[in-house]
Amino acid sequence: MSIFWRIMIMGLALGPLLSGAAMAAEVHVYKSPECSCCTSWARHMRDAGFSVIEQTTGDLERLKRAHQVPDRLFSCHTAIVDGYVIEGHVPAEDVRRLLRERPAIVGLSAPGMPRHAPGMQSAGLPLRGFDVIAFGRDAHGRVFRHYPEAD
Question: Do residues 100 and 93 touch, judged by C-beta distance below 8 A?
């Protein structure tokens, strides 16, 4: 059997496995009932190909503390994606990078409510003027990605 046919057969056999691995992770978003920007961020994640489940809660602070989000990194909603915490308006591209690289951290945060982050800005405008912070159990953080102000 030629190498071409061996590769073709291997591709057919592995195809279903690879397509399942390529599927986007499920995002569980916890938000307050009256927050519209959280709903906009969930839409941003859906538009980026993620499966999103939204759940309203009246006690976000307790959820944040249970998932080790440092106070200084709090935002308006908290999401869980494949074991990582995503706090606030973190761009989908950064969540994809997190899931691809799998660093030994608790999660990512776009602290506060950055004006030009996904869910806070009009769709299609450039992301700018905020940092995405990677944080661990020790509550220290480092810049995972910097979005500079416009020139």
Answer: no
